[in-house]
Amino acid sequence: MRSYLFVFLLLSIGAVSAAPLERDLGGGLIYYRIRNAPADLPGAASAPRRSFVLDLRYAQADDSAASAVGSWLKTRASTRTPVFVLANASTAPGLLALLARHNPNDGVLVLGAASPGFSPDIPITISPEAERRAYDVFETQTDANALLKENASKVRNDEARLSREHAAGSPVEDAAPEYTAPPRLEDKASAPLAPPAPPVDFVLQRALHLHRALLALKKI
């Protein structure tokens, strides 16, 4: 009896952990985290004028995954409803091979930290350790904006760059983060201790900024 109960608990835990993570990021942008492809791919029909973030970072995949993900993207991505795909060196090789063949003009935009064998449309500078930490925290963070920290000036910069480059078909590269001067020693001594800020997922943040810029430019 105990052995049957143990097996049941294992299956239950596996079923819970396999459920895809879904978050509404506002503005008609929905986030999906895929841990196992194609099992985690959302099956519901896409709502009109809805855009998506498909997070394939660290995703595992079986032999049918590339075909299934490719079909999912084809039925949802367009120039008016873009899909922002997040990937990295730890994404399953079959999925990286699929992304290497995509056409950005079809509405699929790949973002991530570049590495040997992976060249995203928009490379983001972030260490593997920082990316993994932010990725894990986002799993349990109920307030998505706390990990994204929208920056209004950054969104405006994206608007200008998109209108100048992206709409013309030129490649878009991620800009270096703005420099912020560190606090002075005397300021540190007098300031009260604040709780540590949650890690920022710069890859997901960049996808959000691009979506907001496209919205402001009325391109989606």
List keywords for this structure.
alpha/beta, disordered N terminus, 2-enoyl-CoA Hydratase, Chain A, domain 1, two-stranded parallel ribbon, 220 residues
Summarize the structure.
With 220 residues, the protein is α/β, with parallel strands linked by helices.
Provide structural commentary.
The protein is α/β, with parallel strands linked by helices. It has one domain (17-216): 2-enoyl-CoA Hydratase, Chain A, domain 1 (Alpha-Beta Complex). 41% of the residues lie in helices and 13% in strands. It has helices at residues 2-18, 65-76, 93-100, 128-140, 145-148, 152-166, 185-190, 202-216; strands spanning 21-24, 29-33, 36-37, 51-55, 60-61, 83-86, 108-112, 122-123. The strands form two sheets. Strands 1-2-4-6-7-8 form a six-stranded mixed β-sheet, with helices on one face. A two-stranded parallel ribbon has the order 3-5. Strand 6, helix 3 (93-100) and strand 7 (108-112) form a beta-alpha-beta unit. Mean pLDDT is 80; it is low at 1-17.
Fold topology:
Blueprint: H1 2-18, E1 21-24, E2 29-33, E3 36-37, E4 51-55, E5 60-61, H2 65-76, E6 83-86, H3 93-100, E7 108-112, E8 122-123, H4 128-140, H5 145-148, H6 152-166, H7 185-190, H8 202-216
Parallel strand pairs: 2-4, 3-5, 4-6, 6-7, 7-8
Antiparallel strand pairs: 1-2
Helix pairs in contact: 2-3, 6-8
Q: Total domains, how many?
A: 1
- Run of helices and strands: HEEEEEHEHEEHHHHH
Number of strands: 8
Q: Which strand order spans the largest sheet, edge to edge or round the barrel?
A: 1-2-4-6-7-8
Helical stretch tally: 8
Q: List segments where confidence is low: pLDDT < 50 over at least 5 consecutive residues.
A: 1-17
CA(first)-CA(last) distance: 57 Å
**Structural class assignment:** alpha/beta
Shape: globular
CATH class term: Alpha Beta
> Any idea what the CATH architecture is?
Alpha-Beta Complex
Percentage of residues assigned to helices:
40-55%
CATH topology descriptor:
2-enoyl-CoA Hydratase, Chain A, domain 1
How would you characterize the largest beta sheet? 6 strands, mixed
| Integer-rounded radius of gyration | 19 Å
Mean of residue pLDDT? 80
- What fraction of the residues are assigned to beta strands by DSSP? 5-15%
